[in-house]
Design a protein that fits this description.
single chain, alpha/beta, 24 helices
Length: 790
């Protein structure tokens, strides 16, 4: 323990590293803001500074008496904001989405008290995860995993921009998104919050989201944008056992090459804050990791943003991780490691304990001033120091946001859902379904808005969607299919249903099944649409002990298959579940993922052929529970033969591969070209390929460029996604798609943990087209982030 403290304090007491001085600031320097930070800091007492570093949940300032209206407790507000001068409040009041008026009224009151007590408003943070998920009546969009499946770069920007606009209609300035954890452990319960398993896909989509949230200038966030918060730094999405908030084991080499890249690129795009991984990697809790928090992120990127903990994670350093004796020592480790704000979230004792640590010399004043400067800088960038931006009567405020829940936002959400639902199989072209066909809709996800949205939807676990369905009338899959094909042609017999409830009811709990009723209903139909998958969940309550789809749901599909009626299997799930034994029974298989409120309409449009499938899997769909892998596996993971006296079998058993997805039309790839046959790290490589719609209907095709390094000093990945574009094509139309990458993009982190691009042969593949090209000289970087070295 003493060793850890010495390392942290030694690093803190030194001057900024030479590397930081050479790196261009991730966020442009703004002299006016820095002058304001310096002036404000000079007037603050130690109590005021420490208060800024504490974040308390809204339950700590409400009275808890009225479960329908958000009312503040004067006693609690006095303690939290006046006495302790807490700098931030978070979370949704009463556990359910609030109207813009409710949000604005409450936040305005909190800000008024903070302005009086600390001379600057508190900053309110909310998990608005796929649109304004905690703002009642706002627009919800397909979850991030759907946005990734679309391979449409515009979508994350549009989602974030509308989310920011609708959040600001309630005076919410700080959004805890995007989630950019690489979803490389398919059992993980937050897989659907990410943009999938690939570093490039996560990076491109997350950068777009940051720009959508924050607007054009991160130093000047206007009335229609918010601060973004990247999460969860780092390797949170690859827990060893697949369960949330449990340890990962990722080498620093792989951290640097794959997991750090999306965070780095978002920081350089101006992201103003990050939230930290709740667990540990290789035995070191991230909340105490000075190397990753300060050296890699703050200093290595010359980034002046703010780092906030996740929920109660400083306390976990002693209560769970056992690297501290008590909370006081845990605070010492975390703050010295680089944490700026503690999401405590219930106790103000953080402030008392941190003050003791400062007075005892265990946390240097320089670290306090640095943390508070970062918090103040965030507030100034959001103009929270100016009461005119938040001390506004709601009637006046509402007039500034006429596009709240606009019809065009709903139309966009529908379009996103259409472009994000994946057609995995379509044997005998059973889809699209013809008009007049008799349909049985079955399965626990068929007539339930909750799994259609997933978690972080009106309530933490998504169970609030039941109430919203009744009050706002969004269409379930069944309701939309019935509207599309005619109620007289569509029968509902769910067969299996979920138990209702929130976090106190296991998300997988099912009622007694009535499979026989579904089988009887199948007698009078032409086709069966079986909508199966998962109920909604979020975070730890979504942990799995069995990766298989539930036994009741499998039995339902197997019983229906015995009727001889063709089955369209629709998967509505936030992560893949093992379905190999029932997937073979279907004529068509669709992965709808979590398409949200307008996903029912989108699926009905696709089934009828009124829209065309254009999505592809953003993760590898496993076939077996003991064969989990990612598409960029090492060659040694897929070896079917070996010389010698015994049989050898190491095969990748994927049910469907990353990038797989079908359409109602067909595409032909031709004329793949590269503008040079040899290259160096400094070169730009321009690939072109012709894509032709050879079918009879219009479509959109994600064009994916994969590159393989054939021989390297450490075992290379099987292949890596290096660029992608989505192209729209009418029947018979051909377009030339251009895909550009830098030579340095093909570098990897070597065994010595340095970036290197090695001389040798590479192979590119786009569709069924392939070509080889060569790197003519080896380049090794001595800086941790290769583009920072001239």
């Amino acid at each position: 323990m003493r060793y850890l403290k010495m390392i942290a304090l030694g690093c803190l007491l030194g001057v900024a590293t030479q590397m930081q001085a050479q790196v261009k600031p991730a966020i442009p320097y703004n002299a006016e803001i820095e002058a304001k930070v310096k002036a404000k800091l000079a007037t603050m007492t130690l109590d005021q500074k420490i208060g800024q570093m504490c974040e308390i949940t809204v339950d700590g300032v409400t009275d808890g008496k009225n479960r329908k209206v958000w009312t503040l407790s004067e006693e609690n507000v006095d303690k939290v904001l006046r006495q302790y001068k807490v700098g931030s409040i978070l979370n949704v009041p009463l556990g359910f989405a609030q109207t813009p008026e409710s949000w604005a009224t409450g936040i305005r009151k909190l800000n008024q008290v903070s302005q009086e007590a600390a001379g600057i408003a508190q900053i309110y943070g909310v998990d608005q995860m796929h649109g304004t998920t905690y703002t009642y009546g706002g627009t919800l969009f397909p979850q991030s995993i759907n946005q990734a499946a679309s391979f449409n770069k515009e979508f994350p920007y549009q989602v974030a921009e509308i989310c920011a606009y609708e959040s600001k209609a309630g005076l919410i300035p700080w959004i805890y998104a995007p989630v950019m954890d690489l979803g490389r452990q398919p059992m993980w319960s937050r897989m659907w919050e990410s943009f999938g398993e690939d570093p490039l896909l996560n990076s491109v989509m997350a950068v777009q989201a940051v720009k959508g949230f924050q607007g054009a200038d991160p130093n000047n966030i206007d009335d229609y944008h918010t601060a973004a918060c990247l999460k969860h730094y780092i390797a949170y999405g690859n827990p060893i056992n697949g369960k949330d908030r449990t340890p990962s084991s990722v080498s620093e080499r792989e951290l640097r090459e794959k997991y750090f890249e999306p965070f780095k690129n978002c920081a350089k795009a101006g992201a103003l804050s990050i939230m930290v991984n709740s667990s540990n990697n290789n035995g070191m809790p991230l909340h105490a990791n000075h190397r990753l928090l300060t050296e890699w992120f703050k200093e290595g990127l010359n980034w002046d943003g703010m780092i906030v903990t996740d929920w109660a994670d400083i306390a976990s350093l002693y209560s769970r991780d056992h690297i501290a004796h008590d909370k006081k020592e845990a605070i010492e480790l975390a703050i010295n490691a680089g944490i700026d704000m503690s999401m405590d979230p219930y106790n103000t004792d953080f402030c008392d304990l941190l003050k003791e640590l400062v007075n005892e010399g265990r946390v240097p004043m320089s670290r306090i001033d640095d943390a508070v400067s970062r918090i103040l800088r965030l507030k100034f960038r959001l103009h929270l120091d100016d009461p005119k931006t938040w001390d506004i009567d709601y009637k006046k405020l509402a007039k500034k946001y006429p596009k709240f829940a606009a019809a065009e936002s709903a139309a966009l959400s529908t379009k996103m859902a259409e472009e994000s639902i994946i057609l995995l199989k379509n044997n005998d072209n059973i889809l699209p379904l013809k008009k007049g066909v008799k349909i049985l809709v079955t399965g626990p996800n068929s007539n339930n808005l909750r799994p259609q949205n997933g978690g972080w939807s009106y309530t933490w676990q998504g169970d609030g969607c039941v109430r919203v369905h009744d009050e706002l009338g969004y269409k379930t899959f069944y309701e939309a299919i019935s509207d599309k094909f005619g109620a007289e042609n569509v029968t509902l017999a769910e067969g299996v249903t979920y138990k209702n409830g929130g976090q106190n009811v296991n998300f997988e709990s099912e009622n007694e099944p009535d499979i026989e009723a579904a089988v009887k209903a199948a007698a009078g139909v032409d086709v069966i649409i079986a909508v199966v998958g998962e109920n909604s969940y979020a975070e730890t309550p979504g942990n799995l002990s069995d990766f298989n789809l539930s036994p009741n749901q499998k039995e339902l599909v197997k019983a229906l298959a015995k009727t001889g009626k063709p089955i369209v299997l629709v998967l509505n799930e936030g992560r893949p579940r093992i379905i190999k034994d029932i997937e073979v029974l279907s004529k068509a298989t669709i992965d709808a993922l979590l398409p949200s409120n307008y996903g029912g309409i989108a699926l009905a449009n696709l089934l009828a052929g009124d829209a065309n499938f254009s999505a592809k899997l953003p993760f590898t769909y496993p076939g077996s529970i003991n064969s989990l892998s990612t598409y960029d596996f090492k060659p040694g993971e897929s070896v079917s033969t070996m010389s010698g006296n015994y049989n050898y079998d190491a095969k990748i058993d994927a049910l469907y591969n990353f990038g797989h997805g079908l359409s109602y039309t067909t595409y032909k790839y031709s004329n793949l070209k590269l503008d040079k046959t040899t290259f160096t790290a400094k070169d730009e490589l321009t690939f072109t390929v012709d894509v032709t719609n050879t079918g009879k209907v219009a479509g959109k095709e994600p064009v994916l460029l994969f590159v393989s390094d054939l021989v390297a000093s450490i075992t290379p990945d099987n292949k890596r996604l290096r660029a992608f574009e989505k192209v729209a094509l009418n029947p018979g139309e051909t377009k030339t798609v251009t895909l550009k990458i830098k030579g340095s993009d093909l570098a990897f982190v070597g065994y010595d943990e340095k970036w290197v691009l090695e001389k040798g042969e590479f192979r590119a593949k786009v569709g069924d087209q392939a070509l080889s090209f060569n790197c003519s000289e080896t380049k090794k970087w001595n800086t941790p982030n290769r583009e920072d070295e001239n």
